[in-house]
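Troubleshooting log. The previous structure file for this entry was overwritten by mistake, so regenerating from the original sequence record. Sequence copied from the archived sheet and checked twice against the printout by T.R.
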Amino acid sequence: QVQLVESGGGLVQPGGSLTLSCVAAGNAVNHYAIGWFRQAPGKEREGVSCIAGTHDNTDYIDSVKDRFTISRDNAQNTSYLQMNSLKPTDPAVYYCAADPIDFDEIDPESLRSWGQGTQVTVSP
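Regenerated output below.
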């Protein structure tokens, strides 16, 4: 397992942008699948986006497609979630998670390393 630390959350107006970072420590994550999740108050956690460990496959939930972009910089042991055109439905605590699993195996139960989360707030 690795230690993950998210950052980059904050307050932004509707239509604004934020870039979340997820820095891994304790092991190189160049072959780890990485997922970004979010949980709003009173709601269940949902997967937002994921990226494969050994190739460039990515996936997004429909509500963030064409607005969010997941990426990774293996040299920096970091994953990013670029969030554009933020909406009032996007506020939540955003978490990253990672594990050396195949892309098709990505789900919350399979990802064993989790960060502490970073808060995203969208408000006029």
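The mean pLDDT is 95. Archived copy saved in two places this time.
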